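Q: What changes when adenosine-5'-diphosphate is included in the input?
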Amino acid sequence: MINQLPIYACGEIVRGFGRGSKELGIPTANLSREVVKTLPDCLQTGIYYGWGNVDNGDVHKMVVSVGWNPFYSNKEKSVETHMMHNFDCDLYGRILKVCIIGYLRPEKDFVSLDALITTIKSDIETAKALLDSPENQKLQSAEFFKGEIKKC
Ligand code: ADP
Ligand code: RBF
Ligand code: MG
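A: The predicted holo structure follows.
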């Protein structure tokens, strides 16, 4: 799995349950089930870090959750990206591109919402530090983020 990374994905940002912002205070831009289905099997469920942009804009650090969110027992697999950037408006319908570089940990269940939030905040700090390495920095300027915007 690890040696198949980075994986590039892109697609329209769709609506989920709305819990990321309201319950966790950590919004995640969700990709559609059609795009999720096209991702390679080697992208096993879990929490990853990488780079992302919206409508070919600036490329930001991101963390992405791939799977069924065991804390919520979701019925459908989701791929949800939290961008480390404050956007002024919502992003529904816009095109998200992500370059998934590294694996952080498996998805877990938690005893409380607070425990989930604390772990996600720790993932974000870990990701920020890892993305500062010269090797990971190179991928921030990948041609992929500048190329044609299409629903792929
Ligand atoms: P949903 O369940 O519909 O995905 P969330 O509560 O997870 O809703 O919030 C995600 C939405 O918040 C995104 O689709 C996007 O429109 C918006 N958003 C604002 N800032 C960010 C960010 N930094 N990262 C990801 N999404 C963001
Ligand atoms: N959901 C889980 O049920 N277990 C997890 O371990 C988990 N880790 C996450 C880590 C990150 C970095 C992010 C962005 C999300 C994670 N989620 C996890 C998903 C979270 O439950 C989901 O984003 C919200 O429910 C909003 O859809
Ligand atoms: Mg979301």
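Observations recorded in class: The beta strands are 7-14, 29-31, 46-54, 60-67, 78-83, 95-105.
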